[in-house]
Amino acid sequence: MLVTFQAFLDPFVIWWHNFLIAADNSIMELIADFFFFFFFLRLSKTSTVNQLFLLEEAEGGFDQFTRSYRTFGVQRQPDNSLFFQEWAPAAEALFLTGDFNGWDKFAHPYTKKDYGKWELTLPPKHDRSPAVDHNSKLKVVVHTKEGERFYRISPWAKYVTREEKSVIYDWVHWDPPQPYIHVHPRPKKPKSLRIYESHVGIASPEGKIASYTNFTTNVLPRIKDLGYNCIQLMAIMEHAYYASFGYQITSFFAASSRYGTPDELKQLIDVAHSMGIMVLLDVVHSHASKNTEDGLNQFDGSDSCFFHAPPRGEHSLWGSRLFNYSSWEVLRFLLSNLRWWMEEYRFDGFRFDGVTSMLYHHHGIGSGFSGDYSEYFGLQVDEESLVYLMLANHILHTLYPDCITIAEDVSGMPALCRGVAEGGLGFDYRLAMAIPDKWIQILKEFKDEDWNIGNIIHTLTNRRYGENCIAYAESHDQALVGDKTLAFWLMDKEMYTNMSSLIPMTPIIDRGIQLHKMIRLLTHGLGGEGYLNFMGNEFGHPEWLDFPREGNNQSYHYARRQFNLVDMDHLRYCQLYAFDRDMNRTEDKYGWLAAPPAYVSAKHEEDKVIVFDRANVLFIFNFHPTKSFQDYRVAVEAAGKYRIKLDSDEAQYGGHGRLEHNTEFFTEPQPFHGPCALLIGLWS
Prior knowledge:
The protein is of the alpha/beta class.
């Protein structure tokens, strides 16, 4: 790996040199800001290179370092002996207890090693089988220097479960005699990324926690039919509190047992691969649950270990612990965690949660970002976590060239999605988080006739050049109780009574269905280089999402997705579903997500008309609530003959069928906001 390090440094020099050549007097005042920007990236990149050199020197390279899940926790050896290893630097003594020794707290002590590590080897039984049986329970007994005794779950535990009436999770030894073997290869990275964001537990109309098997059998075929080529799985890493939406992780190497076994998750991913669908893990390395008995917190009895000591090691809003990314063993733990999910479960990449919190010492709390470079490059930036993210992306993309990484960052950090070799953080995509906020703001605050078309276009196109964005019309947070989905903002209580196609549409339902389709297509076509949809929103899922909790008497009524509504032909949900499906299929044919940014030729405030070209596809939207147009002149980039390929007004999509699809539209050789133009009818 050493030979690649020189290539790490050269592009920066070329990039900066080219910038100086291109600079003229009109932008010289920005030189100071840009110099600081590049200087900061250079420092961060140098730190990353130094870390890689240290890994090479101390661990034999990052390949071996990131496979530490093979040496920590519990490992079955070729002779069926079991090797246990933990990192607990503040502990006075460690013991192993469990079903295998009748829960004797002192019978099996660990041996203390250098650098805070502890080891234990259990020889096989007389019949040569492992001393700890598959599916039996274990605990690490931690004795502190203060004389306290704690019972802990190994941070490297691969499987944890909870008894029905218990609130604490148990470490369960997972070593099946016939583990699941993946059959299907990973799909190739698609040029156009269309993501179906999913939560396994709510992926059923039934009022219960759904299973991995249910998702494999009943949801994967729907995702395939809809034309999505990637799934983003939420709430997979084990989390003791179900209502946390999977963002308060307690066991980082364990797939959540509330949905089934590890092998059933592996089968889900394998079947998705057989359909040509990539699977991303929503990974949470920005913080961890404060739980002690079944989490990482105070594993060795100290208030630090994997985390910074308080107050730096505590997130004031999330009530969680913050990792110490400068710690060698924390790097081992987190980087090996990424490798584990890629190797053991064969995920295809990650959506990194909470990147804004990681990047800044203030964690984004009370900070507005205007875009000024001083907000991104200064002492408020946490360089340790920034270097961790650069390391993670470099290692992932080196080992898995088709790996996809997505950053959830609201700050707009420059170079987030540029290569590490350029001084960037190395992500493939960033979430365009301003877009769903804009749509909700519009629906909450403005009448249809008051929509600011220019502001909508600005929000959809305002992204850093050369950094890929994932566009989405609404986020999973907006589905939670206390807020509303787009469909619910548009149609509200009428969704309960007037969604039947057997009765005429009311004005509210008519408006809601048409805008639901148009908002999604406009976001899909103009908002980014990838597209994301949260499960159920494609068909206008009614109501909200609310996990069982004390405040709702532990009810599962709203913790579900009512896919059964789509299967009822007399309800209009199937019309929204059909439009979403055909929108994705049309993109798959023409590839606008993989094309350069669109050329917007019209954003007419009075007419409420938007026109743009992308990937040789002409998009035309009329958002006027009452005004239709005949022979409306629109600009086009390429001369020739045009035909309608997707029409939101088509009857099968809940429209009024007012356009004739056999009509051919010919361009006129006269300039009109472009090299040529054509005439078309637009309906309100």
